[in-house]
Design a protein that fits this description.
- The chain has a domain at 27-142: Immunoglobulin-like (Sandwich), CATH 2.60.40.1120.
- Helices cover 55% and strands 12% of the residues.
- The protein has helices spanning 122-131, 147-166, 168-173, 177-189, 193-206, 211-235, 238-270, 283-303, 310-323, 327-343, 347-360, 365-377, 383-396, 404-431, and strands spanning 27-37, 43-45, 50-55, 60-65, 71-78, 83-88, 95-100, 110-112, 140-141.
- The strands form two sheets. A five-stranded antiparallel beta sheet has the order 4-3-6-7-9, with no helix packed on it. Strands 1, 2, 5 and 8 form a four-stranded mixed beta sheet that branches.
- Strand 6 (83-88) and strand 7 (95-100) form a beta hairpin.
- The longest helix is centred in the middle third of the chain and has 33 residues, at 238-270.
- The two termini are 37 Å apart.
Length: 441
């Protein structure tokens, strides 16, 4: 028997809790190595070199110091901003780099010449730049350069020019990104979804590598989709449901982009450095948030029969479950994984997943519902057990539980199916001749 399309008997009311990252928690890690030239042409690491990060779009100064290996790390650099990085050390001539976007260039090394150990203030650097500015992002010492340094500088200038040419629009909007992010967040809080999406799209155009804009856009799309879907269900508005599903599909795509951008940026931050806790949470916790949002989007998309890549959904939910340590959140996502397996056509796996959940948590209502519809759709269908499981769900779920009306309808359908099957068996038994009473031809 082909059980009718239960996947379309979706939840009638979906709850949504907004979770938007704010600009204040968005930081990156700056790192690099400082070495000092020796008389024989070799270089050695410099310990306790002072590294200053002068933010030039607004007034801000951050610091770091090198370890015995000459490495420095500052894990609290704002995601948005342009910096001048200045380095000084005893017995060395100071050096600096201007117009650096740490999010695009997290690793910056310095090779110092021997000198008097002086340090440069931002004002002194500006004076030196006015006298003869170097190319953006080019290391520059506080005195004359050797022929070797000039050659290296020319190579660096060519590379930086290439990078800056490709990111011209990003540089132009660099100072506006915090304002764009805040405006989008404010619009979302006020439920001005279209306005919020416009702001987040501006941020994505300015710098598509920033996960926060993709993630926030997905959050807005999901929230708008939930509102649209709830209204459409009450009004029995099919086009309204399709509009909501379009939002869920786009939200899933943006969640995937957010994960990809975050991981790419995290890899850049960690090149050559140990994992360092950052303000607002460690990189691992930050990624867990992105994974949770992606899993939630897929869960809602699948329950509303949205056409998404079910294998991608299964993988995303499994990945989140493996990373999540909160038992309540993990259990909720386990049921979502069962739904994903069911809608993806992996019925036997869905049945096994729901049974696993109920073995450890017999009161999980979503698992009861999921197991009921999965058993009914199995090959061969297990109608009696499916009916009993759905009846158990109906008996235990509160009256306002989203899936209860669907379960009541399914129980009635399965009762009719069982009665019809029993009736057919009775008819067959009546038609079959009794043993020993066969008619002669």
């Amino acid at each position: 028997m082909r059980f009718r399309n239960f996947s379309q008997l979706a939840v009638a009311a979906l709850l949504f809790v907004a979770c938007v990252s704010t600009a204040s928690a968005q930081v990156v890690t700056a790192s690099g190595k400082v070495t000092l030239k020796q008389a024989d042409g070799t270089t050695v690491p410099v310990k306790d070199a002072a590294v200053k990060f002068y933010r030039t779009d607004i007034k801000q100064e951050l610091n770091a110091k090198t370890d015995k290996g000459g490495r420095y790390v500052n894990a609290g650099i704002p995601l948005i901003g342009t910096f001048t990085i200045a380095v000084s050390a005893p017995g060395a001539r100071p050096s600096y780099i201007t117009d650096v976007r740490i999010s695009a260039r997290p690793e910056n090394d310095f090779v110092l010449d021997p000198g008097d150990g002086s340090a440069l203030t931002l004002a002194q650097i500006k004076t030196a730049m006015a006298a003869g500015p170097a190319a953006a992002g080019t290391p520059r010492a506080g005195g004359a350069l050797s022929a070797e340094d000039k050659k290296k500088m020319a190579e660096q200038q060519a590379e930086i020019a290439r990078i800056e040419a490709g990111n011209a629009k990003i540089v132009e909007l660099n100072t506006k990104l915090p304002e764009i992010l805040k405006s989008g967040n404010d619009a979302f809080t006020a439920k001005k979804y279209d306005e919020a999406l416009t702001f987040y799209d501006q941020g994505i155009v300015a710098d598509p590598t920033q996960a926060v804009f993709h993630s926030n856009k997905a959050t807005v799309l999901r929230a708008r989709g939930v509102d649209r879907y709830n209204v459409a269900v009450k009004a029995k508005d099919t086009p309204g449901k399709e509009a909501a599903r379009a939002d869920f599909k786009m939200a899933a795509e943006e969640n995937e982009k957010a994960i990809a951008a975050h991981r790419e940026n995290a890899a850049k931050r960690q090149q050559g450095t140990a994992t360092t806790p950052t303000a607002g949470g460690t990189p691992q916790n930050e990624e867990l948030g992105y994974m949770e949002q992606r899993a939630e989007t897929y869960r809602i998309a699948l329950q509303t029969s949205t056409q998404v890549d079910t294998e991608a959904a299964i993988k995303a939910i499994q990945e989140y479950i493996a990373a999540e340590s909160d038992p309540a959140k993990k259990n909720k996502s386990q049921a979502g994984l069962g739904d994903a397996l069911f809608i993806g056509g992996r019925i036997d796996e869905a049945v096994a997943k729901f049974r696993e959940i109920l073995a450890s948590n017999p009161g999980n209502l979503d698992a009861m519902f999921g197991l009921g519809i999965a058993l009914a759709a199995a090959n061969p269908p297990q109608i009696a057990e499916a009916r009993d499981m759905l009846q158990q769900f109906v008996s235990k779920s509160p009256e306002n539980y989203a899936r209860k009306p669907d379960a009541v309808e399914m129980v009635k359908y399965l009762d009719e199916t069982l009665k019809s099957s029993a009736s057919n068996k009775d008819e067959d038994s009546k038609k079959k001749p009794a043993s020993g009473n066969r008619r002669r031809p």
